[in-house]
Amino acid sequence: MSNKQEFLDEMSSGYSFEGESIILGASKLGEEVMKESFIRIPLETLNRHGLIAGATGTGKTKTLQIIAEQLSAKGVPSLVMDIKGDLSGIAVPSGGHKKIDERHEKIGFPFISDSSPVEFLTLSDEPGARLRATVSEFGPVLFSKILELNDTQQSIVSVIFKFCDDNQLALLDLKDMKKALQYVTGEGKIAMQEEYGRISTSSVGTIMRKIIELEQQGAEVFFGERSFDVDDLCKVNEDGKGVISILRLTDIQDKPKLFSTFMLQILAEIYANFPEEGDLDRPKLAIFIDEAHLVFDKASDALMDQIEVIVKLIRSKGVGLFFVTQNPTDIPDEVLSQLGLKVQHALRAFTAKDRKAIKLAAQNYPITPFYKVDQLLTELGIGEALVSALDSKGRPTPLAHTYLRAPQSRMDILAPREIDAILDQSTIMRKYNEVIDRESAYEILTGKIEDAQSEEAQEKLEEQNKTARKTSRRGEKSTFDKVVNSTTTRQIGRTVAREITRGLLGILGIKTTRRRSRRRTGWF
Question: pTM of the full predicted structure?
Answer without folding.
Answer: 0.81
